[in-house]
Structures are given as C-alpha cells and as structure tokens.
Amino acid sequence: MNIVTNVTITGFWGTHRLSMRLNPDINFLIGVNGTGKTTAINMIAAAL
C-alpha cells in the first residue's frame, strides 16, 4: 500500500501554493471560513 506523506503543489490554479506534511494515520484541516481548507482538498484531489 502506498501512503502519501508530503504534498507540495505550486503554480496550480493561478498563484495558489500548497505544501503540507501528512500523518500516515489521520489528518485534520482546521481553520476559520475563507482560509483555504476546501481549496487545499480540491487541489490535492485534482493533482492525484
């Protein structure tokens, strides 16, 4: 089984840049409205 442990996306959808380390067990994206949680998930899904 392959496990994604690091994600780096640059120049995607214009000026967006995403870089995060992932825990192999579980990960949470927590933040107030408008901070890019859904954008981060959409970028990862589109890149895969």
Automatic annotation (TrEMBL):
Q: Which Gene3D superfamilies match?
A: P-loop containing nucleotide triphosphate hydrolases
User: What is the official name of this protein in its record?
Assistant: Rad50/SbcC-type AAA domain-containing protein
The organism is marine sediment metagenome
